[in-house]
Amino acid sequence: MEERLFQTARDIEGLYPHVHIWGFPIATYLFLGGLAAGILLFATLYYLKGKENDMPFTVKIAPIFTFWFVIIGLLLLVYDLHHPKYVFELFTTFRIESPMSWGAWTLSAVSILSLLWPLSYIDDIEAYLHERGWHQLDKITKFLRDLEHKWLIPHFIIMTFRKYRKFFAWILLFLSIILGIYTGILLSAFNAHPLWNNSILGPLFLTSAVSTGSAFVMWLSNNKRERKLMSSIDMALIATELFLIIHMIMGMQAGPEAYKQAAHLFLGGEFTVIFWVIFVGFGLLLPFILEALELKGKHIPPALPALLVLVGGFLFRLIMVAAGQMSEYPF
Amino acid sequence: MNTEKNKYMNPYVAGFFLGLLIIAAYYFAGEGLGSSGGYRDVAIGVINKVSSAYAQTNPYTAPHVADGHSPVNTWLVFELLGVIFGAILSAALYGRLKFVVGKAPHITNKKRLYLALLGGILWGIGTQLGRGCTSGLVLSGMSVNSLSGYIGLVAIFGFGFIFAFMFKKLWIKKN
Fold this sequence. Notes:
The structure holds two protein chains of two kinds. By secondary structure, chain A is an all-alpha fold.
């Protein structure tokens, strides 16, 4: 055991001049969790609307990535812990009033379902890849098909999933909304940090998560209709995000002193430029304009607005995590 | 062919607008136009982030980090961000927004990119020795009737002609 002597609370690491315990890994995890939630929301929603063959990338292909996003996010979460070996304790209980408990269980359920969802479409995925002349992944798809056909337990699980896909789609749709909103609610539950402690943060993170999900599909899909639809949805989401941001800052400005100081971080304080110029300017307004021009018939490479939205979404989480820790109640 | 041509503004009209833009920049921001200084500020910002102690002792970077505010918080950096924003919008509006490597058809992308990197490095060194590039030194310098602006103009375009002749093989195919 390491013995440490503290003369003042300021000696405790990560607390002075303000809390700075969470950094890059947490922001990345919040981004990846939100991105996975956004992709799964569209996949399940359009499946339930009967569009699985009209929107093959959204429903069948994009969810392949979500399992990996969730796993990388979870690894980053564990990496960030001071005592990683106690992470299992989160799974020994469920506390309805704790967002972290909701998150731990939702992530576990989503990681399993996000693996089963694309596995249940393995034949369609293989056909999709072959149609586009991508034979590099043949060995993997063959292995997964064999796994399903030759092994009893995986065969049973995947067949059951396929049979009750509609039921699982409803569950996954619900869980993806919980996952998207929970990342914001997790932060807003910290009542010692006024910037986080507001009820807009949950819906704002959910909107941003769904927006990054639509940008991901828009970027990688080569179906024109699918891309156009995602582009229009993303525009509505960006507009909603802007509305929520302005609403959040106005609410803080109208609140007590601590909340005014929190808003000041974005209104002349340390994060003003990066928030308004880089995130709002380049991560929301520019992709919105580009998507609008594309809908008007201008040729815009889909990768550009999509990348701007994705980088903007990541930056937004980095800013909110860093700025939130700086926002405190004055002593 | 005609439509290709019409995608770009008449260069004389564009030059006139550029002149008006300099007046506006001096009026609103109190500073002229530039670009190399913006890249320098970003580079100093990175150095300052990696090692603030080094940035404060190095004679080249020290004046930029002396007053306590971020070296990236300068007019030129914001101007460059505006240039990027405006350039993307302009290209999108006129149907020129695409990912391409602009080069002569007979050289490879790799060669073009290596040479562009080499040219960029030389440009970076040159602009710091000359204390400005075509926009900061020549355009803004000449707009305030600075002698260095005129010397810069003659040097940049004079040597530009000589180097263009020396390296024309990279752009014009030899028959």
